[in-house]
Design brief:
The complex is a heterodimer of chains A (307) and B (368).
Chain A lengths: L1 H11 L1 H30 L19 H8 L10 H35 L2 H12 L6 H11 L5 H8 L14 H10 L1 H13 L3 H9 L4 H29 L3 H6 L7 H10 L4 H25 L4 H4 L2
Helix pairs in contact in A: 1-2, 2-14, 3-14, 4-8, 4-9, 4-11, 6-8, 9-11, 10-11, 11-14, 13-14
Chain B lengths: L4 E10 L2 E11 L4 E5 L6 H9 L6 E6 L2 E2 L10 E4 L11 H5 L1 H5 L4 H14 L15 H14 L4 E5 L7 H18 L2 E6 L2 H7 L2 E6 L2 E6 L1 H6 L4 H6 L4 E10 L3 E6 L2 E7 L13 E6 L5 E2 L7 E12 L3 E8 L6 E6 L12 E6 L5 E4 L7
Parallel strand pairs in B: 3-8, 3-9, 6-7, 7-8, 13-20
Antiparallel strand pairs in B: 1-2, 1-4, 4-5, 9-10, 11-12, 11-14, 12-13, 14-20, 15-19, 16-17, 16-19, 17-18
Helix pairs in contact in B: 4-5
Classes of the chains: A mainly alpha (307), B alpha+beta (368).
C-alpha cells in the first residue's frame, strides 16, 4: 500500500498528486459523506428549533420513522395511509416512467447506433441534446401549457375529432408522466446508445444470416450485450424520477402528491427538518434496495454499469 | 443438399463507384470456389450480394436456379462466415452452434444433439459448455464453421475467415476446411487475398481486380496460363519484359523488348487470340522457369548482372539486373547441393523456353 502511494506521488509529481488527493477527498467528504451523515443524524433526533440543537432537547429518537409508518410519534394503532400511499405511488410511478423511457429510448438508441449514418446521426443527437439547454422549470411549464385545456395537444385531438371536449391531462397525470419521461430521457438514451454502439455489427448480420427474425436478434444478441447500458439508464432514470421535485410540483394534478413534495413540505412548510430527513432517508434507502434487487434479478453486476 | 450459384451480369454500384462490373460466373454445386483479389477489388461485395446483405444494382443472383431478388439473408439457403467470425460472446459454444436451430424452434434436446454432432465434426467434442472467449483462435474458427453448417445451408460463404490466424494455423486450417467441404459436400464460396489459400483449396478460382473478374479457372490454369497482365502479376511471382509484338501466331507471339526478342505462348481469352503483330505486349516468365544457360539451348536468352543471392535452404533466389528492365529479375532454383558458380557482378546468360513464358497484352499490374 505504501509503495502504491509512493508510486502515485512519483508518477504525478507532488503538486498534482496533492491536488488530486485533496480535491477528490474534499469532494467525497464534503459533498457526499458529510451531508448524508448529517441527514441520517438529523432523522434520528427530536425536532427542535436551531437554538436548542446540541442540547438535551435534541435527543435521539425513532419517532419520525414511526410517524411515517403509523401517523403518530409513538403510537402503532393505525397505519399512516396518506404518506405510505404517496410513497408507494411515487415508487410505482417512477417504475412506470422508467419503463416508458426504456420503451422510447431503446429503439432510438439502436437507430442512432446502427442505422443512422454520419451527418444524420449527429443531427439527431444534437436535436436530442439542445432542448435540454432550456431550464428544467421552463420545460415543465412548457409541458403544462402544451397539455392545458386549450393547449396544443387538446386542440389537435379536438381538431382531428378524437375528442369533442378538452381532456384534463393535468388531473389525469398524463402531463406529469410525459414531463417526467422527457426530463430524464437523455440519461436513458446515452448509456444504451454507448452499449449498443460497441456491439459488432457483424453479430447482428450473423444472426440474421442464420435465419433469425428481428425480434430474436434483439432478444438473443442485442439486448444481452446492451444489458449493462439498459441497467445503468434505468437506474438513473428511476432514482431521479423518484427524487424529482420540480416536475411534480408544476405538472402534478391537485390530487396527486409526489413523495418528494411531502419531504419538501416537512422541511419548508412544517419546519420539521427531522421528519423531512427521515423521509428522505427512507426514500433513498428504498430506491437503493430496489435497484440492487432489480439488478440481481437481471444478473447485472454493479461494476458493469460503470463501463 | 447443395446448390449451384449463378451471377448473371451482376453490377454493384455505390453512387458513382462501381464495386462490381458485369460479373458472370457459374459456380457448380458442390465445388470449392474462391474469389481471389487484392483488398478493395470487390470480392466481398459480390459475396454480400450472394448472401443477401446487398442487392445488385443490376443483374441477377441465382441459387439453385432460383432468382434471389427480394429474398433477405435470413431466407436464403446460404450461411456466411465472417472475417471476424462474429461468434456470439454471451452464449456458450453449443448455443452458438445451435443458434440456427433455435431460430427454427427446435427443442433444447434436439439443439443439443445437433450441436454435439457438429462439435464432433469439427473435432471439438465436450467443449460445448465453454464460453467462446475460452477458445483459441483456431477453435473459434471451427466453431464458426459449425455454427454456419448447423443452418444446413446449400452454399457456405467464407469471407477471409483465416486472415486473423497465424501462418502455421492458417496452413493447417486450409487442409481442414477442404476436408470439411468434402465431407459435407456443399458448395463453398471462399473470399481471400491470399493466393496460397485460393490455389490449395479451390476447384475453381476467380481472380478479381477493381470490380472486374479477370479470369475464372482452376488453380493450375490460373498459374500457368494467366489471361491478363493483372492475373500474371498478382498470382505468384513473375518477371516481366515489355515491348512490341513483331510476329504472332495463334500459339506464340514474338515480342521485341529492350532485352532482345522474346517468344512466349499466347493465351486466348473468351476463345480469341489476344495478340497480333504491332500490339504492345508483356512477356512474363516465372522465376522458377528462368535458368542459367550453362551450355544448354533455350528459345529465349537474356544477359543479366548478378546483384545478390538469397539462400532459403531448399531454394536459391538469385537477383539480376537485366538491360532494359527497371525491376530486378529473379531466378529461383532448387538447392541440389551444387553451389552457384557465379560471382556477384558477373554478367551471366540466362534462358527460358517459350512454352513456359506467356505473352499478354499490356494492362494494369498488381501493386507490389
Amino acid at each position: 500500500m505504501t509503495t502504491y502511494w509512493q508510486n502515485f506521488f512519483k508518477k504525478n509529481g507532488v503538486a498534482l498528486a496533492t491536488y488530486l488527493l485533496v480535491s477528490v477527498g474534499c469532494w467525497i467528504l464534503l459533498m457526499i459523506i458529510l451531508p448524508q451523515l448529517f441527514m441520517v443524524d438529523f432523522s434520528f433526533r427530536a425536532n427542535v428549533p436551531p437554538p436548542q440543537w446540541g442540547t438535551d432537547a435534541h435527543y435521539y429518537t425513532t419517532q419520525h420513522y414511526n410517524y411515517m409508518l403509523y401517523g403518530s410519534a409513538q403510537g402503532q394503532d393505525s397505519y399512516n395511509f396518506v404518506d405510505l400511499s404517496v410513497f408507494g405511488r411515487t415508487i410505482l410511478a417512477a417504475i412506470f416512467v422508467t419503463l416508458i423511457d426504456l420503451a422510447l429510448c431503446y429503439p432510438v438508441a439502436y437507430y442512432l447506433a446502427h442505422v443512422a449514418q454520419g451527418g444524420w446521426a449527429r443531427l439527431m443527437v444534437m436535436s436530442l441534446i439542445i432542448p435540454f439547454w432550456v431550464n428544467e422549470l421552463l420545460r415543465a411549464f412548457a409541458f403544462k401549457i402544451m397539455f392545458g385545456s386549450s393547449g396544443i395537444v387538446n386542440n389537435f385531438l379536438i381538431g382531428i375529432g378524437i375528442l369533442d371536449q378538452p381532456f384534463d391531462f393535468i388531473r389525469g397525470g398524463v402531463a406529469l408522466y410525459a414531463g417526467l419521461s422527457y426530463a430524464y430521457i437523455l440519461l436513458m438514451i446515452f448509456p444504451i446508445y454507448n452499449a449498443i454502439e460497441s456491439l459488432d455489427k457483424n453479430q447482428i448480420e450473423a444472426a440474421r444470416d442464420l435465419g433469425s427474425p428481428w425480434w430474436r436478434i434483439h432478444k438473443r444478441v442485442v439486448i444481452p450485450h446492451t444489458k449493462p447500458g439498459i441497467t445503468s439508464g434505468c437506474t438513473m432514470v428511476f432514482m431521479l424520477t423518484a427524487g424529482a421535485l420540480a416536475a411534480p410540483q408544476i405538472l402534478g394534478g391537485p390530487s396527486s402528491l409526489w413523495f418528494t413534495q411531502i419531504i419538501y413540505q416537512a422541511f419548508n412548510q412544517a419546519g420539521n427538518w427531522s421528519r423531512g430527513a427521515a423521509y428522505a432517508i427512507i426514500l433513498l434507502a428504498t430506491c437503493i434496495i430496489f435497484v440492487l434487487f432489480v439488478m440481481r434479478i437481471f444478473k447485472v453486476k454493479l461494476g458493469e454499469i460503470a463501463r | 443438399m447443395s446448390a449451384d450459384v449463378q451471377l448473371d451480369n451482376v453490377w454493384i454500384r455505390f453512387g458513382d463507384f462501381v464495386a462490381a462490373r458485369e460479373a458472370n460466373i457459374h459456380i457448380q454445386e458442390g465445388e470449392f470456389f474462391s474469389f481471389l483479389g487484392p483488398s478493395g477489388c470487390g470480392k466481398t461485395t459480390l459475396l454480400r450480394a450472394v448472401s443477401g446483405f446487398l442487392d445488385p444494382s443490376e443483374g441477377r443472383v441465382l441459387i439453385g436456379g432460383k432468382d434471389m431478388a427480394g429474398i433477405g439473408p435470413n431466407k436464403r439457403p446460404t450461411a456466411l462466415i465472417f472475417q471476424n467470425l462474429a461468434l456470439f460472446p454471451l452464449m456458450t459454444v453449443w448455443e452458438n452452434i445451435a443458434f440456427a436451430l433455435e431460430v427454427r424452434g427446435a427443442s433444447k434436446a434436439e439443439r443439443r444433439k445437433k450441436a454435439d454432432e457438429l462439435l464432433e465434426l469439427i473435432a471439438l467434442p465436450d467443449q460445448g459448455e465453454k464460453m467462446v472467449s475460452e477458445l483459441s483462435g483456431g477453435q473459434k474458427q471451427r466453431v464458426a464453421i459449425a455454427r454456419a453448417l448447423a443452418a444446413e445451408p446449400d452454399v457456405l460463404l467464407l469471407d477471409e475467415p483465416l486472415s486473423a490466424l497465424d501462418l502455421k494455423l492458417r496452413q493447417h486450417m486450409r487442409t481442414e476446411l477442404r476436408a470439411i467441404q468434402q465431407r459435407v459436400g456443399i458448395t463453398f464460396i471462399y473470399i481471400t487475398h491470399d493466393q496460397g489459400e485460393a490455389l490449395t483449396m479451390s476447384d475453381h478460382v476467380a481472380v478479381m481486380s477493381q470490380g472486374v473478374i479477370e479470369q475464372v479457372a482452376d488453380g493450375t490454369t490460373i498459374y500457368d496460363r494467366p489471361e491478363s497482365a493483372f492475373v500474371a502479376s498478382f498470382v505468384g511471382e513473375n518477371n516481366l519484359f515489355s515491348g512490341k509484338v513483331v510476329e504472332a501466331t495463334a500459339e506464340y507471339a514474338v515480342v521485341e523488348t529492350p532485352s532482345g526478342k522474346l517468344r512466349g505462348r499466347q493465351v486466348a481469352r473468351d476463345g480469341k487470340t489476344q495478340l497480333a503483330a504491332g500490339d504492345d505486349a508483356y512477356v512474363f516468365i516465372r522465376p522458377e522457369s528462368l535458368k542459367f544457360v550453362n551450355g544448354n539451348t533455350f528459345d529465349n536468352q537474356v544477359t543479366g548482372k548478378i546483384l545478390h543471392q538469397e539462400f532459403e535452404g531448399n531454394f536459391w533466389q538469385v537477383f539480376f539486373d537485366v538491360k532494359g528492365i527497371d525491376k530486378r529479375v529473379k531466378l529461383s532454383m532448387v538447392n541440389d547441393g551444387r553451389s552457384i558458380s557465379h560471382d556477384l557482378g558477373e554478367q551471366v546468360p540466362l534462358g527460358f523456353n517459350a512454352d513456359l513464358a506467356v505473352a499478354l497484352p499490356i494492362g494494369d499490374l498488381a501493386a507490389e
